[in-house]
Specification:
single chain, 316 residues, alpha/beta, Rossmann fold, Beta-Lactamase, 2 domains, 31% helix
């Protein structure tokens, strides 16, 4: 592998191509200053593949030449098979020790379950600025395939230039999320990532709340008394916030989950919970419903759980 440039493979879904091009332009623009020792080169499929070439072999060559794979994980409700395939090729499926993969994901969300050990970068201004600085000044820590030290010396690139690059990337990411056309969900939904959980005796307490378009919204989390999306929020956090660890509705929901995993029919939850309203008062009654469980095709392990909270009529 040549070290004449630091090469980044930008993995993205086809519909996020414009976002990928913004990321490419901004990251490559970091190294236009004279102080940079080595340039950054970003490979974006669709833009850097010449017509009539062998797509698969070109992708493989680009992966082989890259020092870092950067996954743009936007709408978690979409299928990410191809991006995970690219990541698997890049890491040789060695997900236990991943030192050269970074995942840019929605602020308040998380990387996809199979990539729980990668460098996760929430798309907030502070975290992306930190990522950019890390890339420039501590390059060797971003990739175990890079042997030339930092791309630039500490202080050589102006702080405001890095923040401008980070803000442009964050704005493009948020614009992509805002432009996603999806379904309208008339009920509140809490989507949990349970791909790394081992316990199937009830909904895993360490299941991470997935925040984003078509997933768990900040408005839904306000039902549980959260004024903003807490970082790395889990199912246990929600239950604790509601003082519902031993609540009847939670126990019924766990039984429904266990029966569903065994392929058994289960009765709807009868117990209700009282949630917060817009004024911060616990005055609204909701009934939780186990809506969906997604499982891996191989070992059938659950990876995602969707719980719907249906509001009952006032006084119901």
């Amino acid at each position: 592998m040549s070290d004449d440039a630091f090469r980044i493979f930008v993995s993205h879904k086809h519909e996020d191509h414009d976002l990928a091009m913004v990321v490419k332009e901004q990251l490559e623009g970091l190294m236009t200053v004279e102080a940079a020792d080595r340039p950054i080169e970003c490979f974006v499929s669709g833009a850097d593949i010449v017509a009539a070439t062998d797509w698969d072999s070109t992708i493989r060559r680009a992966l082989d030449r890259s020092h870092l794979l950067l996954l743009l994980f936007t709408n978690s409700s979409h299928r990410w098979d191809w991006c995970l395939y690219e990541t698997g090729l890049f890491t040789r499926f060695d997900t236990a020790e991943v030192h050269a993969v970074a995942c840019l994901h929605a602020d308040g969300g998380a990387p996809p379950g199979p990539l729980g050990s990668v460098q996760a970068v929430p798309m907030g201004l502070d975290s992306v600025t930190k990522f950019v600085k890390h890339l420039c000044y501590e390059t060797h820590e971003m990739s175990d395939n890079w042997r030339r030290g930092p791309l630039a010396k500490d202080g050589d690139i102006e702080e405001r230039h890095m923040k401008k690059v980070a803000k442009t990337m964050v704005d493009a990411f948020n614009k992509t999320l805002a432009g996603v056309e999806g379904y309208y969900y008339p009920c509140h939904r809490v989507v949990l990532d349970v791909g790394t959980a081992d316990d199937e005796s009830g909904i895993p307490m360490d299941g991470r709340v997935v925040v984003g378009v078509g997933q768990t919204s900040s408005f839904t989390l306000s039902l549980f008394g959260y004024g903003s999306v807490p970082p790395n929020c889990t199912w246990e956090d929600i239950l604790t916030h509601l003082d519902a660890i031993e609540a009847d509705w939670r126990k019924e929901l766990d039984r429904a989950y266990e029966n569903a995993l065994k392929g058994k029919l289960f009765t709807p939850v009868c117990a209700t919970l009282t949630a917060w309203d817009d004024q911060g008062n616990t005055s609204r009654s909701y009934k939780p419903l186990l809506y969906e469980i997604q499982r891996r095709s191989g070992d059938r392990k659950p990876v995602s759980v969707t719980i719907v909270f249906d509001r009952l009529p006032d006084g119901g």
